[in-house]
């Protein structure tokens, strides 16, 4: 029986009340927030604020990574309110459209996005907006804390919530399709921590960072896993300060997307004075959200950091395969979930399928789209791949990106992109098929001279079958635009 997220958090709140759950930057120091305080703040917000919204109501959350953000999300999950995280870089119109789509009546937001939220509020006159640091929220927290302390209400951690009720609607960050609202239950959020603890070493007192965007499933799922294991999380609201946060909070385990792993690697290259234990203090980094280029893998491995990979989607409530710390296998996205409740297989035509409590209920108000990806409980990931006899997953590429050449042969562009990513100095690559001939074209962003780029690609071409060779090269002068999860926006 999988231990619920509710019981995992409860355990630390009641058994380790004085241990730090979070670390907050304060000048040149870091201040701890205890598990007792974390639990009290969740209770206070749940009982003084969210109880008036009503179970099943939708609450939008807008803001950068912060302690207040995670308290709001956890309070929603533990009290039966549906959390709807929104990417703060969306336009005001896009935010309003998504909030209206899910019929949100209440929005909690960061003061950093106050101006944008005012624009959203003009478009949604019937919705109540409040910022994290407002006097209204402080008042609600004080009222809620007093009510719990005086015994007027019981803590949300006294009784298990309904694990199968809708807990969150998270919009996909797909690169080509219109984002859809993915319905996830509280049980879905319990599965990733239960699965990850079997293969990743995290214990009470370990330190990590809350750096991945919390509106994205990888960020929120990895945060709950680390909390469930009792790690102390340094709050990093700006990924551009990643290296500083690693130093300040002495992080030893990290969850990153490849783009952030690359930033960290370059910062380590240019370090001048390192505190004791850095970079050796980082024991491992697990990347997800996109394939990890070999050059980044080798770069960080050279610092003695163990590099691990995982694979998953919003619809599977984050990663469904993880590289085990003691037995990583290069070239794979790790092992399928060790939980018997989670089933995985490959369809006859090579598509990765998954079934289990971690899989979404459906796409919100989109039965047609749901029917396309769900069959007898199996979720069709849209990725072609393989699962070997030991349970290691190899993701070949997105089925909707497969290039069918005029000869009838099929090419996975991701395979060629990974080869190009191995060229030192070539930072980004996107392979496509053009015209009726489906001419293989590579568009690349690089710090190398253009002639060097072309020569290096010619060298790679000589190792490939003729039909897989890149026929056209376009050299960009600036990086590709990316989604919130670090994927190149197609």
Task: Sum this structure up briefly.
The chain is of the alpha/beta class and 490 residues long. The protein has helices at residues 5-15, 35-53, 67-79, 92-101, 114-123, 135-149, 186-196, 217-228, 242-249, 258-269, 294-301, 367-373, 413-421, 450-461, and strands at residues 20-26, 29-34, 58-62, 82-86, 106-109, 128-131, 166-171, 181-185, 207-210, 232-235, 253-256, 284-287, 306-313, 318-322, 335-336, 343-346, 351-355, 374-375, 378-387, 393-398, 403-404, 410-411, 426-434, 439-446, 472-476.
Could you describe the 3D structure shown?
The chain has helices at 5-15, 35-53, 67-79, 92-101, 114-123, 135-149, 186-196, 217-228, 242-249, 258-269, 294-301, 367-373, 413-421, 450-461, and strands spanning 20-26, 29-34, 58-62, 82-86, 106-109, 128-131, 166-171, 181-185, 207-210, 232-235, 253-256, 284-287, 306-313, 318-322, 335-336, 343-346, 351-355, 374-375, 378-387, 393-398, 403-404, 410-411, 426-434, 439-446, 472-476. The protein has a five-stranded mixed sheet. Strands 16, 17, 18, 19 and 20 form a five-stranded antiparallel sheet that branches. A hairpin with a 4-residue loop joins strand 13 (306-313) and strand 14 (318-322). The protein has two domains: 5-384, ANL, N-terminal domain (Rossmann fold); 403-476, GMP Synthetase, Chain A, domain 3, CATH 3.30.300.30. The radius of gyration is 23 Å and the shape is globular. It has 14 helices and 25 strands. It starts with a helix and ends in a 14-residue tail after the last strand. The model is unreliable at 273-280 (pLDDT under 50). Helix 1 crosses helix 2 (35-53), helix 2 crosses helix 6 and helix 4 packs across helix 5. It has 490 residues and is of the alpha/beta class.
